Amino acid sequence: MDALDPFQGFQRTQYCSEVSESDLGKEVRLVGWVHRRRDHGGVIFVDLRDREGTVQAVFNPQFSPESHQKADALRNEFVIGVKGVVSKRPEGMTNPKLKTGTLEVMATELAVFNRSKVLPFNLDEDLEVDEAIRLRYRYLDLRRPSMAANFALRHKVSKITRDYFDGHGFYEIETPFLTRSTPEGARDYLVPSRITPGNFYALPQSPQLLKQILMIAGMDRYFQIARCFRDEDLRADRQPEFTQVDLEMSFVDEDQLIEIIEGWIARLFEELMDKKVTRPFPRMSYADAIEAYGVDNPDTRYGLRMKDLTEAVKESEFQVFRQVIEQGGVVKALRFPEGARLSRRELDNLDGMAKDWGAGGLIWAKCTADGIQSPIAKFLSAEIVGTTVEQMNAQEGDLLLMMAGPGDEVNPWMGRLRAELAHAYEMIDPSEFAFTWILDFPLFERDKEGEITSMHHPFTAPREEDLPLLDEDPEACRSLAYDLVLNGTEIGGGSIRNHQVDTQKKILSILGISEAETDEKFGFLLDALSYGAPPHGGIAFGLDRLVMILAGAKSLREVIAFPKTQKASCLLTQSPGPVDAEQLRELHVRTVLPRKPASN
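-> structure tokens emitted (600 positions)
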């Protein structure tokens, strides 16, 4: 044996989970970690684990005294190699939860490659561990079989994605990490340039402009599994650096692009989830989504559609309704089937929750055999009650829940209420996957300061029939944008782009971007558009989010190998961290710490 052989002659013959009945009576060589060690009356059992799974190794002093003696010192997470003969487990000793649960390896030799300190937490799947500890010792956390399964799944998603788009004529083309800062909504991560002092690169929020340049360059069909960066506040489904499946196509319309995407999604779900996906996916306009569901990413696995009761109740004597309607507001309602069973306490809790969101309150009405039971029943005429019941298609035992106020406030409140009810009263089938395309988004919207902004981004094309509205009423202009929603989560979004330079300039002008800033920030794109740009469009999907859904995980951090915390820090590497003063001098950068608040 070579004295420098790190495996000491134990190069594996297969992964642990690949031990099968075809190996019965044969010698195998396995390597991995001690997942668990048990001593049963002198016979030592070791669950040997590698990336693919687990198999039981048996150290019997009567079968191999030397290996049994060595096994006595084994502890969890020791790295070992085992030689042995595959045999059947004794009757009554099988483990149906393991792929190898009917087999075991009778060890003849044991090598210890490395020892492990006592673990900061147990790697058993059913043990709850503080996430900060998991992230601090991420290399241990990733050894857990469920985490290994997540990354096996992620790999398969990437492979299927590459194979699918390659089969549809797409080129995989990389775009740079070091690029120019352009206004795209979130803050950029900036990188100072040592070569040109005072100038900065920006890490890309997306490859948006460059993939459009690739279409102008004649690449026709591009895709990339792209790393993107945004300096924004975080939550469970956001990270400062993330991965998206990014693509762009020339000479394409909405329908053609949607067909390509549906084929890709169907393949992912059929191959990875064994789920037959029905195509084409349902489509819904943005206006209809807001009207019926209150949000532009509706979960359509359950009903609880909202309806507008403004016209039906405008003559009521209930002053809240009358005042709201006179001020241009709306009254929206949803029907909760068989919700009349809810107690007064449950109804008060719903009302309190709505007030916590900022709503004025929640008005309820139970449909009973004797008519409407509600705190406002005395303010509603028989005609109004009849119209309301008919419009809501209410039946005896149903509960009507109503809110009044400005439409842009009531809709999201009711949308939130709808989701809360569905989750609280178990109205959702977790095994169902409901896809919906949302189309016809407004081209523009107003931000919190009242400034006009792009609802998607400034390069989204308006619908051709709405082009005159760019001059007449820009906020009424609809766009050729589209989002794909799955179970209430937006998993992808894109648009047909502006390929005419005059239209692109006009949109930037409406957004209040000066001619000088346009030239500075987007001059290279506008210049490229003037050299025969083809009609083109694209879409991007959050790969992390898609894998999270496929894996049934609750957070993006479960499917990203080395994620950041909600404070954008890496607990494993302790980044971000300070750098040497000499490095800053080379970059011509000086740090200025924020001032501490003055003490009283």
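The chain has a mean pLDDT of 94.
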